Amino acid sequence: MGNNVLGTPIVKGLGFNSFGIGTNACSVDIDEENDKILRIRPLRFDEHYTPEDLNAWKLEARGKTFEPGFKTLISPLSLCYKKRVYSKNRIPYPMKRVDWDPEGERNPQNRGTSGYVRISWDEACSLIASEIKRVHEAYGPASILCELDGHGETKFVHAPHGCQSRMFDLIGSYTLQTRQPDSWEGWYWGAKHMWGMDPLGQNSQMNNVIRDVAQNGDAVLFWGCDVETTPLGWGGYLASRLCYWFTELGIKQIHISPDVNYTNAVHADKWIPVKPNTDAALQLAIAYTWIKEGTYDQAYLDTHAVGFENFKYYVMGGEDGVPKTPKWAEAICGVPSYTIKAFARYWAKHAVSIAHCNGGSYIRSCYAHEPARLEVALLGMQGLGKPGANQFKFIEWTLYGMDTVTPLPPSVEIPDCSPAYRGWYRSFPKSFIPKTMIPEAIMNPPVSWYGHIGAGFPREDQFDGPYTFPLEGNERLHMIWSDTPCWETCWNGGNEMQEALRHPSIEFIVVQHPWMENDCFFADVILPTNTKFETEDIGTDSDNGQWNLVYYERQAIKPRLESKSDMEAVGEVARALEKFGGIYENLYERYMGGKTCEEYIQAGFENTGAAKKMDFEEFKEKQYYPFPTREGWEEMPAGLIQFYEDPEGHPLQTPSGKLEYYSTTLASQFPDDKERGPIPHWVDEGAGHQERQYLERGRKYPFLLVSNHPRWRVHANLDDVTWFREMEETCKVTGPDGYKYEPVWVHPSDAGLLGLETGDIVKLHNERGAVLGGVRVTERIMPSVVYQDHGSRVDSVVLGRGGLDRGGANNLIAPYATTSTHAFGEVTSGFLVNIEKVDVLALAEQ
Amino acid sequence: MGKVFVFDIAKCNGCRNCQIACKDEHVDNDWSPIARPQPDTGHFWCRIEERVRGQVPKVRVSYVMHRCQHCADAPCMAAAPDAVYRREDGLVIVDPEKAAGRRDLVEACPYGAIFWNGELGIPQKCTGCAHLVDAGEVPHCVDVCPHGALRFGDEEDLAEEIAAAEALVPERAAADKPRVFYLNLPKRFLAGVVVDPEADEVVAGARVTAENLATGEVLAAEADEFGDFWFHQVGAAEWRVYAEAEGYLTRVLEASTVDEDRNMGPVELYRAE
Ligand SMILES: Nc1nc2c(c(=O)[nH]1)N[C@H]1C(S)=C(S)[C@@H](COP(=O)(O)OP(=O)(O)OC[C@H]3O[C@@H](n4cnc5c(=O)[nH]c(N)nc54)[C@H](O)[C@@H]3O)O[C@H]1N2
Ligand SMILES: Nc1nc2c(c(=O)[nH]1)N[C@H]1C(S)=C(S)[C@@H](COP(=O)(O)OP(=O)(O)OC[C@H]3O[C@@H](n4cnc5c(=O)[nH]c(N)nc54)[C@H](O)[C@@H]3O)O[C@H]1N2
Ligand code: SF4
Ligand code: SF4
Ligand code: SF4
Ligand SMILES: [Ca+2]
Ligand SMILES: [Ca+2]
Ligand SMILES: [Mo+4]
Asked: With a 6 A CB cut-off, is A152 part of the ligand 1 pocket?
C-alpha cells in the first residue's frame, strides 16, 4: 500500500453544463509519482475557511433549521469520472475514414459504416487545413457549418466547445448551428408571452423563494420535476436535501408526471399520473373548476392581468363549443375527473408553489408553449406572488449570471472567469441555422424561420425575421466541423440527420472529441481531444446552492494516448493553415490571442473578487476561494411578492407589464397561427404533428413515449460507465445476447396484453424508425405510456429514415418538425410509438 | 466496542454514491495489505437494492443497502480462521494473501457479501476502508452520502440509533451479531382512494379502518382532501377494510398485503338512499 493512501488533493469541477460555466466542485486525490487519479471526493469549504469567513447561512421555519453543510454534495455522475478518463472509448490517435479520399472518391454514402485508419497529427491537420482552404475558395466561408454548442466538461481555457469558431472568426466567418432554447422550449416560446421573464421564460424572480415556501407554503407541485436526477450533473444534492426538509416541515409534495421519477419515488406525498404532453388538458380543467366554483382570485386578476375574460370565454367553451370540464380532460390526460376536481379545490384552498428543474417533456414536446403558459395562467388565478405561491427551480441557480434566479441565500458574487474562456463566445455570424432544422438545411435548402434561435434572446426576438439559409449569393453547406458529435441522440429525428450526414453535398466532416461515440462515426477526420484531468484550468461552481466558488484546476495526469485539449487541437489546425499565407498568416498566434494558458487562467482569476482577497500564487496554493453569503439576504423580497403587492410599481416584462392571458403581440405578429394563438389552448394537431393517442396515428402507434434526462448519464455523456451499466435493476438490461439494452418501462397491464416480461427485448417504433430496449415491467409508469431515457449511445443497424438502432437512442425516431409553425424548438418526448417484442438472436442472424 | 455502520432507509434517496464510491476507492487501487484491487465489475462490496412498492398511482420506492455486516460472530471467520481476521476496531478483513484460493469463502458468508476475484484468485469484500480509517478518515462510501443515511463511527456514539435499529436478516442476528444497523426497514403499506362514483367526487374525510384478519389488530385513518387513505409500515397480512362517511352506506372490502404493498384503488361509496 505504501504511505500514499491519501494522495495529493487537487480541485476539479465535475459538472456538465459546459459553456464556460462550472459546477460540482470536487476534491480529487492524485498520486503524482505514478501519474494516477486515486479517488474523487466532496470538496470541503472549511478546509481553508471558517464558518465566519463564509458568513454561513441557515434557513429557519416552523421551529426547524436547515444548514447547507461544509462539503459539496456531489453525485455518482462525478464519482464515476475516472471511468470516463480511462474509458475504452477514448479516441487514441487522429484518424481518417478509410474510404474518404480528398483527391478522389469521398464516398459520403459510406459515412456511418466504414472504418478508420490511424494518421499523425501533422497529416490530420494538414488535411483539415487544405479542406478549409478549398471550401473557402470554391464556395465561401459560410459553406462551413460549425456545430459547437453542447454540454459536457466545464473547462474554460481548454473549452470543450467552440474553439474552432474563434479561429474561423479570424479567417472569414462560418455558418453557426444555433441552438434553440432546448432546455426551456415551452417556457421560451409560450410562458414569456404571458409573463415576460426573459431570458428563458421560467420565473426569473426567485430570491428567497425556498424560505418563503418553508415558512408560508402548504404544498409544492413537482410538475415534471426530478430533483433526484437533474441536479446531479448541474449542482449536486442540496436540492435533494431540501426535499427532505420540506417533508420534515409537513409541506405536501405533489408529483404530476407520467412516471414515478426518482424524486417521486422517495419524497412524494401524492402522485397524479398524467399522460405525456397532455398537461394542457389537465390545466384547462383546473381553470374550469375554479371558474365554475368561483374559487379563483378575480380581484387579483383585475389589477394584475389583461385578457382574462378572453381566456375564461375559451375555457368555458365559448370559442369552440367545448367546455374544458374535468370529464373532457380525463379522456385526454388520464387523470380521473374526481381527482382533477379534488386537486383544483386543494390548490384553491392552500398556498401552493410550483417547482421545476426545467420541466421535462411537459415543455419539450409538440405545442409545448401551451402547457407552459397555462401554468402561468393557473398561478395567476391563485394570486401569483402571494406568500407561499411562486414558481421556483431546483437547478441553474445563477443562470446567465443573474442574481435574481437564486432561491437560496446568495453569495456576494457569481464569479465570472470569462477572460479565461476560449470557446464560442456568442459571436453571432450572419449565416446561421437553427439546430432543429440542420438536416433540412443540408438536404433541402433554402430553409427559413424567425428569430436568432438561442437561449438568452429577449421575447421580441421571436418575431424577428424571417431569416433564411443560405444567405443570398451564398452556397449551401459543404463542410462540417463538430465538437458536439451527438446530434443523433440529442436532437429531434436523428435518423433524418444520419441521412444529412451522408448527403453528397457534404464533402468533408471533421470531428474533435475525447470519445468514439455517436456522430463521430460519420466523420472523415477525427481529432482525439482530452478530459479536464489532463489539463490545467480554472473553474467556478455557482450552482451548488451552498457558496459560490472559484477554483484552480491543477493538471491531474498527463494527456492520455495521443490526445490534445480541444483548444490545442484547433490550434494545431491554425498552425497548419498558416502555410497558405494571406488571410491565414500568423493564424496560430492570432488564435491564441497573445496569452499563454497560464496567463488566461490568471486573467480569469483576476476578473473575480477573489483577486481582491489573495494574489494568484496564494490562489494556486489554496486552490479555491468561496464567496461568503451576502449580508442582508434576509431582507430581499421573496419571489414575486413585489409584483403581488404593487403591480404598477413592479411590472412584469410584458408589453402591458401584467400577466397577458391574451397576448397582443402574438395576435398582431402571427395573426393566423392556430397552434400558438394569443390565448393558450389545447391543440389537438397541426401541420407538423399528430401525436395524440385518440387521433388517427394513435391507432397505429398507441403508446406515448416519455424520454427523460437520464439518471445515469448527462445526455450523451457517461453511457459507457461500466459501474453504472452493471446495475441491472436500474441502468441497463442485459439481453439474451449479452448486449446491454437501454431500459424501457412498461406497466404490468400493458405487459400482460403484449406478453412482455422484464428482460425481454422490444422494439419501439413509428414511421421514422425503430430503436430497441430492454423491458422492465414496473408500476413506476402509468398504463398506455412507455418510458426510455434519452441520450443512449447510438448503435444503428440500419441507418437513416426508417432505420433500426440497437442502442435505444430514441431521439432517432423523434418528430422532425419543430414545436409549432412559429416556434422552432425540438420535440423530443411525449410522441407516439408502438412497442413489439423482438427475438434478438433471430434478428442477429438476419 | 469499536466501529459500526448505521443505515437509515428513511434518509436514503437511492443515489448509489456509496456503491460507486466503493468502486472509485478500490478498482485499480491497491490497498495492500488490507485489500488488493477490486475488479472493474461484478463485485458489489456495497450494493443498493431497489424495491418498488405498490401500484399506480400509489407507488413508493425503498432502497436497502447490502454489504458486509462486519459480524461480531462472523461465519466467514469461522470458516477460515487463518484467512479472515477481526481488527481491534471490529472491522472484519479477508486477508488477501492468506485467503488466496479460498473460493469457498464466497459461500461461507450468509449475506452474500464476499465476491470471488477470478483474476487475482482471492475472495474479496468490504474492508470498512480500514486503510482510510487508519489514516484518520471515514470510509469513502460514508464520506459521500449526501444525507447521512449511511454513518460510521464508534458504537458508543451511535448507541441511540443502535437501540432503535433492526438487523437486515433478523433470523440470523443472534448468531452473527451483525454490526451494520438498519433503521426504518420497509414493511408494507395499504392505501386507496374513497370515491362517490355517482357524484364523480372523492369523499374527503371518510373514515377508513383496517382489521388485520390474523391478529385482530385494528388501524384507523381518514381520507384526506384527495380522498386518499394510507396505512404505512403495516405487516404482511390479510385485511378487512371498512370505509364509512356521513350519509353513505358503509363499504367493506378485503385486501392483502401478504405478497406486496397494496393500493386498493378506488373504494366506491354509495349514498344511503
Ligand atoms: N429525448 C430527449 N432529448 C432531449 C432532451 C429530452 O428531454 N429528451 N433534452 C434536450 C436538452 S434540454 C438538452 S440540453 C440536449 C443536450 O444536448 P447536448 O448538449 O448536445 O448533449 P451532451 O451530450 O451533454 O453534450 C454534447 C457533446 O459534447 C461532448 N463533450 C463533453 N465534453 C467534451 C469535451 O470536453 N470536448 C468535446 N469536444 N466534447 C465534449 C459530449 O460527449 C457530447 O457528445 O438534449 C436535448 N434532447
Ligand atoms: N443526471 C442528469 N442531470 C441533468 C441532465 C441530464 O441529462 N442528466 N441534463 C441537464 C439539462 S441540459 C437540463 S435541461 C435539465 C433538465 O431538467 P428537466 O427538464 O426537469 O428534466 P427531464 O428529465 O426532462 O424531466 C423531468 C421530469 O418530468 C417528468 N415528465 C416527463 N414528461 C412529462 C409530461 O409530459 N408531463 C409532466 N407533467 N411531467 C413529465 C418526468 O417525471 C421527468 O422525470 O437537467 C440537467 N441535469
Ligand atoms: S457479513 Fe459475511 S463477510 Fe461480512 S463478516 Fe459477516 S460473514 Fe463475514
Ligand atoms: S467501507 Fe470502503 S470497502 Fe466498504 S463498502 Fe464502503 S467504500 Fe467499500
Ligand atoms: S450514498 Fe447515502 S443516500 Fe445515497 S444510496 Fe448510499 S446510503 Fe443512500
Ligand atoms: Ca386561493
Ligand atoms: Ca426537419
Ligand atoms: Mo438542457
From this structure: yes
As a whole number, mean pLDDT of residues A123-148 equals 98
CB-based contact A179:A185 (threshold 8 Å):
no
The atom number, within ligand 5, closest to the CA of B148 reads 2
Domain count, chain B: 2
Ligand 5 binding pocket includes B269 (Cβ within 6 Å): no
Average pLDDT of chain A to the nearest whole number: 97
Q: Are residues A74 and B144, on separate chains, in Cβ contact within 8 Å?
A: yes
Residue A458: is its pLDDT beyond 50?
yes
Chain A residues whose beta carbon lies within 8 Å of the beta carbon of residue B14: 228, 262, 265-266
Whether B159 and B227 map to the same domain: the answer is no
Subunit contact A240:B55, Cβ cutoff 8 A? no
Q: What is the pLDDT of residue A265?
A: 98
Please check whether residues B50 and B162 belong to one and the same domain.
Answer: yes
Whether residue B162 sits in one domain with residue B215: no
CA of A19 to the centre of ligand 8 (A): 12
Any ligand 1 atom below 6 A from CB of A84: no
A786 conformational bin, left if phi > 0, alpha if psi -120 to 50, beta if neither? beta
> Is the same domain home to B170 and B264?
no
CB burial of residue B160 (10 Å; 0-12, 13-18, 19+) = exposed
What is the residue with the minimal CA distance to atom 1 of ligand 5?
Answer: B145
The runs of H, that is alpha helices, within A259-352 are 262-267, 279-293, 298-304, 308-315, 326-333, 337-349
Among the listed residues A683, A666, A661, A694, the one whose alpha carbon sits nearest the alpha carbon of residue A320 = A683
pLDDT digit string, tens, across residues A169-192: 999 999 999 999 999 999 999 999
Please state, in angstroms and rounded to a whole number, the distance separating the CA atoms of residues B178 and A477: 67
Question: Which of residues B131, B151, B183 is at a domain's end?
Answer: B183
Question: Within this chain, do residues B163 and B50 fall inside the same structural domain, yes or no?
Answer: yes
Cβ pair A338:B200 closer than 8 A? yes
Q: In the prediction, which pLDDT does A236 show? A: 95
Q: What's the confidence (pLDDT) of residue A579?
A: 98
Helix axes of A566-577 and A121-138: crossing angle, nearest 10 degrees: 60
Contact map slice: B 57-96 vs A, CB within 8 A: 57-61, 63
The whole-angstrom separation of Cα B261 and Cα B256 is 8
Residues A267 and A282: their CA atoms lie apart, in Å, by 23
- Does B74 sit in the ligand 3 pocket, CB within 6 Å? yes
B101 and B37 part of one domain: yes
Note whether A190 and A201 are within 8 A (CB).
yes
Do B107 and B228 fall into the same domain?
Answer: no
Determine whether A489 is exposed, middle or buried from the number of CB atoms within 10 Å of its CB (0-12, 13-18, 19+). Answer: buried
Q: What is the pLDDT of residues A412-426, one digit of tens each?
A: 999 999 999 999 977
pLDDT tens for residues A307-343?
A: 999 999 999 999 999 999 999 999 999 999 999 999 9
Domain that holds residue B218: 188-271
Task: Using pLDDT thresholds of 50, 70 and 90, give the confidence band for residue A104.
Answer: very high
pLDDT digits (tens, 9 = 90+) for A12-39: 999 999 887 888 999 999 999 999 999 9
Give me the CATH number covering residue B142: 3.30.70.20
Contacts of A589 (CB under 8 A, 6+ apart): none
Are A564 and A90 within 8 A, CB to CB?
no
What pLDDT, on a 0 to 100 scale, did the predictor assign at position A685? Answer: 97
Nearest to A1 among B30, B144, B266 (CB): B30
Cell numbers for A29, please give them.
486525490
Instruction: Tell me the three-class secondary structure of B104-125, residue by residue.
Output: CHHHHCCCCCCEEECCCCEEEC
Task: Choose the final residue of a domain: B149, B183, B217.
Answer: B183
B67 and B200 in a common domain: no
B224 Rama class: left (phi>0) / alpha (psi -120 to 50) / beta = beta
Tell me the C-alpha distance between B169 and B49, whole Å: 14
